[in-house]
Amino acid sequence: MGTIFHVQFPGLGLEFTLDRVALSLGGFNIYWYGVLIALGLILGMALAFHYAPDFGLNADRLVDVVVVGTIMGIVCARIAYVAMAPFEYESIWDMIAVRDGGLAIYGGVIGAFVFGGLAARWRRVPLLPLFDVVAMGFLVGQGIGRWGNFVNQEAFGTNTTLPWGMYSEGTCNYLTGVQATLAAQGITVDPTQPVHPTFLYESLWCLFGLLVLWLYRRHRRFHGQLFLMYIIWYGLGRYWIEGLRTDSLLIGDTGLRFSQIVALVSVAAAVTLMVYGLQRSRGRTLLVPLAVEDIKKQDRAGDRFTPDSLPASTPHREFVAATAAMNKRLADLDLDAPAGTAEPDRAPEQQAAPEQQAEPAAPAPEDAPAEPARTPEVSDTPEAGDNP
């Protein structure tokens, strides 16, 4: 058996008995913390893969990017926590032991996006659309993963008289141990009284943010907008919630909370980029180039194949159908045919990307009167490139 916590919510009349160990196999303990983190990752990835066509992303290449981003996100989250932990680890094994908790979320977010972005360049996955769809997946993972803190009885706040205040042996023991340290920082706590369940605040904040991004996804104006919305939404919530916590990671002896500083800087940067992006995209319809499966054949085809595009407001099922039809058209394209041969017909619902070759008009019947020659019209259709 692992550590047992008797958790109470006195104002609500609720009590729970929590065992940190979910399962033991041959003497090896599998903790609820890890189970919940894994569940959040799996559901977040499932959401990203489901909506990948709506963002012009190929699911097969997305797998490699997500795997790299996930692994490096966990590594960077642990590195950030160890680097700013208010104690020293006895060995390297203690530093890498994450089963007991100890992941700095902002370190994980930064690591996942940086290394995931590098993997996207390697796998030729569009970067900003990738960040858009992954932002929704992050909110799923964070909203569920925070419940691992509940099982561990960590990441809670100062005392509160609100009805949902939480108390357990874990909160009492921790606050007793840091009471003097917090007092030196001007924070007064009573270990015998309920505390803010800040893990719950952040979980609800992330899940509500997911709903906002999901509802707005078809109204986005430029690639990267959902990602910026995620940075702003999460940063605002994290700044507020971090101010309630008693276990914040501090920057050296400055007394400044690491997560609050990162939140402020990231929100300011994201708001600036959001205003710029909205101004640049004013009056434009965001077109999403559909995901090509066989990029090697696309390269060989050159000008003989042009990917289709659809407006971002298109329903999900139409993105799926149009992407399948376009990739079938590429698969049916005969690269050994003489140059100048038209590519297979497009499905009528697909919007052709710019510079596609016009299909030759059907010959008129022999007995039909000849039409007078007309001056060719110059198309003023703008290119369907990514909006900034």
Quickly describe the structure.
By secondary structure, the chain is mainly α.
Overview of the molecule:
The chain is mostly helical and 388 residues long. The chain folds into two domains: 4-280, no CATH class; 287-332, no CATH class. Helices cover 50% and strands 7% of the residues. The chain is built from twelve helices and six strands. The strands form three sheets. It has a two-stranded antiparallel sheet with strand order 1-2. A two-stranded antiparallel sheet has the order 3-4. A two-stranded antiparallel ribbon has the order 5-6. Helix 8 packs antiparallel against helix 9. The model is unreliable at 352-388 (pLDDT under 50).
Major sheet summary line: 2 strands, antiparallel
Shape: elongated
Quick one: how many beta strands? 6
Strand percentage lies at 5-15%
What is the count of distinct domains?
Answer: 2
From the alpha carbons, calculate the radius of gyration and give it in angstroms.
27 Å
Q: How helix-rich are the residues, as a percent range?
A: 40-55%
Strand arrangement across the biggest beta sheet: 1-2
Poorly predicted parts: 352-388
